Prior knowledge:
Blueprint: E1 9-22, E2 28-50, E3 58-67, E4 77-80, E5 88-95, E6 103-111
Antiparallel strand pairs: 1-2, 1-4, 2-3, 3-6, 4-5, 5-6
Amino acid sequence: xxxxxxxxxxxxxxxxxxxxEFNDYNQEVMAESAGDVLAARVTPKGGEEMAQFxxxxxxxxxxxxxxxxxxxxxxDVVRHDPDDGRRYEVVGVRDAAGMGHHLIxxxxxxxx
Length: 112
């Protein structure tokens, strides 16, 4: 298990599932359900600016999260607890060294 003294953040994993209903743009409406509060460590990797038509640009930042064994998959969303407004999309999940004692999760945060 990763050292608990290194897990300095509290996060919530929000799972997203399709409802079978579609909006005006023919995109499936997603239902969200929040899980338990987890101890984790979220660290930034880097950032880049993406051009937008209506503004100077949005900042896209990639992060790495280390967390104990939990149910998390691509398409889920991670937020801090207490909620500070930042949302991280789960891009990838790796089992550290294949031992099952902690996960390394690739996250992407977009802020306008």
